[in-house]
Design brief:
The chain has 170 residues and is of the alpha+beta class. The chain has one domain: Aminopeptidase, CATH 3.40.630. It has four helices and eight strands; from the N terminus they run βααββββαβαββ. An eight-stranded mixed β-sheet has the order 1-2-3-5-6-8-7-4. The longest helix has 17 residues.
Length: 170
């Protein structure tokens, strides 16, 4: 049976579900031996702030929240300094805080999320998508490679160096 997969803005009523998904992701990163997300960020305040500012998005499968992400337009101060070079200096969508509900793990939904983010970027008439991840987040690094993102260098974010990627959409 084909499920209906949609990207929509997160609402404040989604907060507890989203926070639960992020807590699962924090624990998965810890079990993987990663340093990412192990210092109290992201937290419930991060989620509330994302939703309030209109940055929070959820990928739903048959109206059930499966993936959370923050999509921020043109605004990531850390990205103004990169050891390396971005592909472009036009408008961009920043992808932060991707977390998949473990109930939906292994179904390729993070890849589908990036398809939806690219559609969203195109619809907004925005040039590119920029994203960073921890050097030890193997799953995300694989997705970015699979989706055709170019490694651009390193940015300093959340207290550490991150690998930075960009994909030109239009």
């Amino acid at each position: 049976m084909n499920s209906e997969i949609k990207l929509r803005k997160a609402e404040i009523k989604d907060r507890d579900i989203i926070w639960n998904i992020i807590q699962q992701a924090i624990e998965r990163r810890r079990q993987d031996g990663s340093t990412q997300w192990q210092d109290g960020y992201p937290n419930l305040g991060t989620v509330e702030s994302d939703i309030t500012k209109g940055f929070g998005y959820v990928l739903t499968v048959d109206d059930e929240i499966a993936v959370y992400t923050a999509l921020i337009l043109n605004d990531e101060p850390a990205y103004s300094t990169i050891e390396g070079a971005w592909l472009s200096d036009g408008e961009f969508v920043v992808v932060h805080r991707v977390a998949v509900d473990e109930k939906f793990a292994g179904q390729g939904l993070a890849k589908k999320l990036f398809d939806h983010i690219e559609d969203f970027t195109r619809e907004q008439g925005i040039q590119s998508v920029k994203v960073d991840t921890n050097y030890d987040n193997i799953a995300m690094l694989k997705i970015l490679e699979n989706k055709g993102y170019s490694y651009c260098g390193e940015v300093f974010l959340a207290g550490g160096m991150r690998k930075a990627f960009e994909k030109i959409i239009i």
